[in-house]
Specification:
Domain HTH tetR-type (chains A, B, C, D): 18-78
CATH topology of chain A: Tetracycline Repressor, domain 2
Number of strands of chain A: 2
Keywords (chains A, B, C, D): DNA-binding, Transcription, Transcription regulation
Radius of gyration of chain A: 19 Å
Number of domains of chain A: 1
Protein name (chains A, B, C, D): TetR/AcrR family transcriptional regulator
DNA-binding region (chains A, B, C, D): 41-60
Organism (chains A, B, C, D): Actinomadura luzonensis
Largest interface: A-B, 38 and 39 residues
Shape of chain A: elongated
Helix content of chain A: 55-70%
CATH class of chain A: Mainly Alpha
Oligomer: homotetramer
DNA sequence: AATGAATGAGGGTTCATTCAT
DNA sequence: AATGAATGAACCCTCATTCAT
């Protein structure tokens, strides 16, 4: 393993080191998106990246660490975008719509990332056999969505309902939208997002 | 390969043969539910069933045939139950609620089956590399749900909306409910189902 | 194992037992001829015979014993025929020709046996890894052929030469004739046999 | 798979890679010669070579590729030698003798190769179940031998006869010589070769 | 006499990982 | 920093053999 803990408590990596990791992560995303998690061997990823198999092991402690980094780099970018889009929006209804439309908009240009994330979330497991990104890894998302819904309830925009159920439903509906789109490339993602936002909104208002 | 096609065009198996297959399928369901599709090796399944690895090969032409039978036996039972519960229900709103509550009720006692089905649907691949249960596995469900929604629209119970988006959302919401429940065993599944039915209904009515 | 040693020192088997063994041997011959020794599993042979796998093990101590019996039954029939045809022939040249033509004539109607014999001779091995029917098993044939050639030399029909080399060559030439014919079914076996007899004869006479 | 096609259309391999392949091929030859094709497992070959089983898979795409390479490396060397020895020989009778003596001479030091070749020719099968080196493997030899005989007929050295039968007989006689010698190590191979050449020659001349 | 069920060893292959260079 | 060679474990599958019925 190359990365070391620097004096600031952060992982410190050379520029070249970071570039290699990024390159490997990008190759991993493509391969996973194309052939699925199970078939995404290090050999395949290395070939796609145009490097040797050993180099991946050199830069990553193991396959798991690579997968985690794929998630971190990919997922981080999405969150960044969505949070930016929601900045300044004031009504709960608009926040809800914005969340759905924003993530849909971002994903339209990042289909491979979407597919890869789904594969990793659903397949990457810890040593104990449990999913590394279990439903628990959604907790963060649920909390964020619950904030929106609770906010809407506090302003009177939304009726009373179980916000956790709503958050789970919301999250799953968005994921399913992507899943359907991934399976049906001709599907109109934006229209789906608009319809979905409508459904969610109607389910909340009085 | 054990099974053969009898004169009636049905698979004809001895009682003992069928019992073994059922036992192996049951073990497979448990193992897949616990450790996921990729880690569900025949060795693991055999050990769980308390039999030798070779015996699985004796009763099934291959791992794929076993997986397909897991789906057939498990999925068939669910559909049977839900269809039975929906028999005689007349309003679209009640059909919708019944569907959600019925499958939730059934699943409460069949958590492993649920998990295993999801794993197989998402991972079992054909020789060509494509998912064996691709879109088709959901397509069937989508069609069934669309019927309910279209029926509601025809009677005026439901407003106009895109039934495919609704079906995808509905299906995913139910799945997510199970997923959440699987990850949080103390979660109140029935209450969740009731809340979810409310949300779906409100999203549909005028 | 069923067979037992009777009071006369011969293996005594019931009629039904013998019939079963014959049936299994026949099936083995067909299967070996079709798919080769390595692919001729007991399962395949049993299926061909229309019986269960276990029954073969019931009648034969093991696969090896079955193979040995295939050879005995098949090979014995050939020898019987050839010996009969050579009865009464008086000149060495005629004996030589008769031997070649007789075995060729017999084989024309017993291609499967021919193929199976070749497969077993070339592949059946003892526990020590050595061929069960090695070149040594040809010794019997060599001796018989040497008799012919030595007889010819004693009568002055044939010149002096190394009879062992001649016997080895003769035997191999006949085998190769069958091998070529087995690979080229349209090949004229009888013409080949005539030509071969000519060659052998010319090689011997002064 | 290691080997790749270089810019010159030739397989380009590193020195070390080629050495390993040669080592593995050598081990395969020995094992096949000793225990036969069917028992020559990769595990056995690897153990003989003093390497791990996986390394064979690393250097060869599969067992079949290894077997093909065994044939290529081994068979090529024989042909090279024999062709060289026959260079410049002018009479058909001398060509015939030279062929027999040359291959016999070469084989004296390459018994295992001979055995291994025979095993592979007779057992290596394609996916469709047919022998990979079927008639074709002999056909090449037959053609070459026929040339000699036809040449002799054209010069009047040899009488008229069926050259294909002669070629088949010639080839089989040489093979049998090796087989006999392999089974009887004390046998005088060179004398046998000389006698055989005599026989073949006498069979051809007027 | 005959079956079907069951085992266990061994087959070839894939793959993450390690390591010398 | 990077490679290619090498390992060993685990994978699915085949098969001769055994055994209760």
């Amino acid at each position: 393993m190359r990365s070391e803990i620097g004096p600031d408590g952060q992982k410190s990596r050379s520029f070249i080191e970071d570039a290699r990791r990024a390159q490997i992560v990008a190759a991993a995303v493509e391969v996973i998106a194309e052939v699925g998690f199970a078939q995404a061997s290090l050999a395949r990823i290395a070939k796609r990246a145009g490097i040797s198999k050993g180099l991946i092991s050199y830069h990553f402690a193991g396959k798991d660490e690579l997968m985690v980094e794929v998630v971190e780099r990919t997922y981080g970018a999405i969150v960044e975008r969505v949070v930016a889009d929601m900045q300044g929006v004031e009504s709960a209804r608009q926040l809800l719509r914005t969340q759905v439309m924003s993530v849909a908009g971002y994903m339209r240009g990042h289909r491979s990332e979407l597919k890869a994330l789904g594969e990793i979330f659903g397949n990457l497991r810890d040593a104990d056999g449990g999913l590394h990104y279990g439903i628990k890894s959604n907790e963060e998302i649920y909390r964020a969505l619950e904030q929106i819904y609770r906010f809407g309830q506090s302003t009177g925009e939304f009726r009373e309902f179980d916000v956790r159920v709503m958050a789970v439903t919301h999250s799953a509906s968005v994921d399913a939208m992507f899943g359907y789109w991934a399976a049906n490339p001709d599907h109109d993602l934006e229209a789906h997002a608009r319809h979905l936002a409508d459904l969610l909104e109607r389910a909340c208002v009085t």
